[in-house]
Amino acid sequence: FFFFFFSVQLMSGEIAVSESALLEEVAEVGRLRTETKPPPVSEEVIVNVICKHFGLDGCDICDIREFDSYDDRNYHINAKGIGRFTIKIHNGADSDAVRNKTISDQDKILLHLSALGRDVLDVPVPRQRKTQTQPGPHRCDNPYWAVLSHSDLTTTEKTSASRSESERDETMKDGEQGKKEVMYVVRLLSFVEGKILQDVPQTLERLASLGDKLGLFTKAVNGLDAAKRDHLWDLRHFLLIKSFVPSLNDDKDKLAMINKCFDLFERNVLPIATKLPMTIAHNDANDNNVIVLDDTKGEETENKGTGNLVKGFIDLGDVIYTWRVADIAIAIAYACVTSDEDAVEISRAIVNAYTTHVELEEMELHVLHTLACARIATSVVMSAYNYAVNPDPYLLIHSTPGWRSLKCLLAMDNAAVNAFNTLPSQ
Length: 426
What we know:
Largest sheet: 5 strands, antiparallel
Order of helices and strands: EEHHEEEHHEHHHHEEHHEEEEHHHHHH
Shape: globular
Structural class: alpha+beta
């Protein structure tokens, strides 16, 4: 899901923003991210890049395969004798100097979390570049990045030898026209071993382990200065989703559900918006970004009895400084969408485990149900909008079950909502 930057003013819990300017920004940045998706990269180029820039020279590199990604390129590699990695090639829009602080903040957070140890909380750790400063025409002082051009990513020894000078010049036509050449930030991250949560039954025990690891995440990043940006998927900006409701094409049932979410947010959250504690949040703990131990590989032997329990997180692309309760609400929201367990029991399992590490205030518990609904509403509305702009099936992963889950959450009576928002011990 794409993010973008826009001008907002948060005062007394209310957001003031020009809808026309917002829609223009969404359309422009969404277009840029799609248009500047990195080109497919050959195995030869991948090997050359990681050897040249990340110090894996002489390694036996194998098992190169691409993962699904909406607007970046992600490849799995196995460097025999060293380990498995993910090479991530960011789209040109996010790699631009105006926006790439978001990527450096991800590195800062991941390196901070890595100090906990992989047995406590496993996250992808960025590998330092071979040289302190990237030499050559595309200078880069960030020690965890390589910055490469379209030509760098598509030119192999064979194609370079066969191309004439005029053909190579053609790849730089944007530069000839006075436009800035698209550059791509490339990172090499340690691979988090295991299965994604989507691939195993989401039992209450497993979801409790999700709450436990999320609590460790929150506790570890407390006080860290990073990820302070404006982001559409920040729950603080939920009311901005009103601008995208027309993408539902006047579906009365869906409109009624979304409008009820807006009403709940305005009634329950806005009055206390400026009082809710703030912290760094992963902001996207869905079942594709949560990694569990893989029983089939015997990983549970080191942590007896913990097979298929959550071990860590991947993809910090949506990381944000926001309300502390947002992360737990988001995890609950996606669990309600993808698990067969009862929603109240899901909430209680996750929150009870989370609060062994981080104590939530009463006002945070009070808005859990509303914020879970808000996140699902954001997901289904933005899926409809993004799919209309770019019909990629990846965008609809949580759409159908999302509507079904939202309907169930909104149908809860007051007693069920109160139970959803209450710790089991209370």
